[in-house]
Backbone:
């Protein structure tokens, strides 16, 4: 039996399982939350920093003005030029400008200059602040891309449209003609109108027609009455006997 036991013990000692689970113990947590002692709470409350109250309430103190950014002199000069363009021009057309060769641009300027129309390149950063403070603020939605201005001291809308018809890189967006803001369709309708001299002649003719008709109507009655009286006198003379006075002829009749 002892031999059997010793043999069995050696077999158990030499046998190892194919899978062993190793378990490592976690570290012990030695710091737990603990409530502060009431004496320390009192000490912390007594030693808490309390900022002093200002002698004058903040609402009574003068406000600190933010430093204003002064504009550059060149920017002010450009703004004055834009104001002068809108002030001295009867026609200001806003166009969208796309990239085009310099030769085509020079040709367009040449044909526009023949009709006393100038091309002005402007920046939106310069034009928009000027328009916001003027009566042309309704033109602001047109300045959203690269724009140019076609300005003229005269209303040359028909000539401008004729030139722009051959330049697809420049698209008309709107215009201000005689302090009236017009869309592209409005500019085209304005170009179809007759000239100022022809319109004035038509207006004068229409105004002169009514007084002439009124005068002819007022003179028609007296002229008819005069003709009737002349005819009546002629008949009296033809029916009267010779030797009788006109008074006797009248009593006899």
Residues:
């Amino acid at each position: 039996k002892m031999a059997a036991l010793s043999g069995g013990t050696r077999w158990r000692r030499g046998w190892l399982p194919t899978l062993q689970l190793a378990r490592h113990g976690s570290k012990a947590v030695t710091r737990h939350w603990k409530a502060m002692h009431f004496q320390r709470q009192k000490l912390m409350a007594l030693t808490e920093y309390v900022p002093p109250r200002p002698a004058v309430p903040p609402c009574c103190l003068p406000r600190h003005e933010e430093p204003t950014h002064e504009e550059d002199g060149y920017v002010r000069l450009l703004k004055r030029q834009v104001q002068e363009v809108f002030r001295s021009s009867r026609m200001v057309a806003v166009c969208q400008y796309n990239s085009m060769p310099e030769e085509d641009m020079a040709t367009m300027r040449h044909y526009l200059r023949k009709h006393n129309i100038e091309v002005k390149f402007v920046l939106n950063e310069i034009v928009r602040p000027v328009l916001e403070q003027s009566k042309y603020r309704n033109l602001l939605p047109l300045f959203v891309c690269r724009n140019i201005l076609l300005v003229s001291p005269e209303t040359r809308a028909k000539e401008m449209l004729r030139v722009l018809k051959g330049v697809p890189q420049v698209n008309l967006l709107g215009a201000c003609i005689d302090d009236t803001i017009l869309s592209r369709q409005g500019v085209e309708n304005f170009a179809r109108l007759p000239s100022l001299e022809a319109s004035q002649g038509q207006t004068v003719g229409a105004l002169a027609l009514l007084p002439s008709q009124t005068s002819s109507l007022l003179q028609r009655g007296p002229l008819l009455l005069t003709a009737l009286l002349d005819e009546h006198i002629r008949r009296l003379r033809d029916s009267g006997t010779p030797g009788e006075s006109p008074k006797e002829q009248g009593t006899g009749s």
Q: What stands out?
A: The domain at 73-192 is CATH 3.30.70.1730 (Alpha-Beta Plaits). The chain has nine helices and five strands.
